[in-house]
Write a structure and sequence with these properties.
Length: about 500
């Protein structure tokens, strides 16, 4: 029973480890696949936004050359007027806007809009709001050449506009013209806002998408403290703008956890200062977490099923395997260890240099039981003897049946006085409780005799101990049976140390 339990536990542990390993690998594979699918969705969104913006820029490059030419023509016209009348206070900017069809901005050497047809921008200080753009303005003022940018935003309205720049002859001002692209037919045909709305409708994980210029300002929104990036997101934005690598930070969107993803974009159709942009993709992980919760729930159920199946299979396998393995090391009649078990058990103890008592036991007149009552009675006697032997042993001590009516008891760490007390009780118990049930013919009672060899004094290997215990057993039988002898006392019969038992 103990062997079967050990085998069951061994099989169970092995099966559980293997099953859990497979289950864990499958679970992590599923989670990795879920994460990859989620990442693929985000990358598809990135591509879709980039394609929408790129389409508008491509359209303006193909069809907007006339607009660039017109902006340059009007800029040079204003440059000439400035040479004739440098006092801008005398200019009628509203009339000029009506005449030219563009908003007009005059930016001084301190990068402040001093005069404009767009009254909301008068006083706008680029050094304060847009340091990166201010540096570009200084370079353009110094160069004195006409430049037309691509898509950009109007600071106070968030509208998408196209701007051009040309310095006055004295380099005191930059003449900036602005054209509202959102009102153009091209933008109506290739409106990337529509593409963004479609993405928001298609993906429940998406919260919002913003297209940011190099100042971190979103297209379609006015520049204000509410639309400005908070420090942590600003840091991520600047890192993406500087390195060109995608950056993510965690935050909140309408009070719920969200991820802010910043994706670098460089236009293939705009080589001006507006070539670079950053997409701010805000998404949540609710769908991902739901899938992971379901996966975890299935993993728990799968683990329970695996556990139950493993227990049942281990129990069945142990029953199937334990019997032949058990019989290889145990006596089929008594259940005690057999000679093979003894030959494995004792050398291991001796290798640990542990003292032990090797007790060889033999039934006296056992043959008379078989002759008188039959082999079935003899088998019952042997089983009862085996049970009684085991009952007298301490933890760690073992009984073996070597064959016929020959038994061996191994008592690790036992002193002689302990061996004597144990054998005294055992012989008395055998005679009074067991052997008395099977009186032999001819007036001879069935009893037990024993011979004891102590290691290491009487031998340091199994063969020597067995031989010396057999010598002591022979002396016990020769002395009248129903007793035991120690080999050392037989080999060295000192009267002061010899006692009959």
């Amino acid at each position: 029973m103990r062997f079967r339990l050990q085998l069951t536990l061994t099989l169970l542990v092995f099966s559980l480890v293997l099953s859990f390993l497979i289950t864990f690998v499958d679970q992590f594979r599923m989670l990795d696949q879920t994460m990859d699918n989620n990442e693929d969705k985000i990358r598809h969104i990135e591509y879709s936004v980039a394609h929408a913006v790129s389409t508008v820029e491509k359209a303006y490059r193909l069809y907007g050359k006339e607009l660039d030419s017109l902006m340059e023509q009007n800029s040079r016209l204003l440059q000439t007027w400035y040479m004739e009348e440098p006092d801008l206070d005398r200019w009628d900017f509203q009339a000029l806007k009506q005449q030219l069809g563009f908003d007009i901005y005059m930016i001084n050497e301190q990068n402040i809009v001093t005069h404009s047809s767009f009254l909301q921008d008068i006083g706008l200080d680029f050094d304060e709001c847009c340091a990166r753009l201010a540096q570009i303005l200084n370079e353009r003022r110094a160069a004195g050449e006409f430049v037309a940018d691509g898509l950009d935003i109007e600071q106070n309205t968030g509208q998408i506009k196209k701007y051009s720049y040309l310095a006055t002859h004295d380099k005191k001002y930059l003449i900036q013209l602005g054209h509202n692209i959102q009102d153009s037919r091209i933008f109506e045909e290739f409106n990337f806002y529509s593409a963004i709305d479609q993405l928001l409708d298609s993906y429940g994980t998406l919260n919002d998408i913003h297209i940011l210029n190099t100042g971190g300002n979103p297209f379609g929104a006015t520049v204000s403290p509410e639309t400005s990036l908070p420090p942590e997101r600003r840091k991520a934005f600047e890192q993406t703008l500087r390195t060109g690598q995608t950056t993510e930070v965690r935050g909140e969107w309408n009070g719920e956890p969200a991820i802010y993803r910043y994706v670098f974009y460089s236009s293939n159709y705009d080589s001006s200062a507006t070539q670079t942009k950053v997409f701010e993709i805000i998404y949540n992980e609710q769908e991902l977490q739901q899938v992971m919760r379901e996966s975890t729930r299935w993993f728990v159920w799968q683990t329970v099923i695996v556990l139950l199946v493993t227990i049942v299979l281990s129990w069945l396998l142990s029953r199937w395997l334990s019997r032949p393995m058990y019989l290889a090391y145990h006596d089929s009649l008594t259940g005690l260890g057999n000679r093979s078990f003894l030959e494995r058990f004792v050398p291991r103890l001796l290798a640990e240099h542990r003292p032990l008592a090797y007790v060889m036991i033999d039934l006296d007149h056992f043959k008379s039981i078989n002759d008188t009552y039959g082999h079935d009675a003899g088998d019952r006697l042997l089983k009862e003897v085996a049970r009684r032997l085991a009952a007298h042993l301490r933890k760690g001590e073992r009984a073996f049946r070597l064959g016929g009516d020959e038994f061996v008891i191994i008592m690790p760490g036992a002193a002689e006085d302990h061996v004597e007390r144990t054998l005294d009780r055992m012989i008395r118990d055998m005679k009074e409780e067991v052997i008395a049930r099977f009186p032999s013919g001819g007036g001879m009672a069935v009893t037990v005799s024993a011979g004891v060899a102590m290691a290491p004094a009487d031998g340091q290997d199994l063969e020597t101990l067995g031989r010396h215990a057999d010598v002591a057993l022979y002396e016990a039988k020769k002395g009248g049976r129903n007793q035991y002898r120690f080999y050392r006392r037989v080999a060295d019969p000192d009267p002061s140390s010899t006692t009959d038992h």
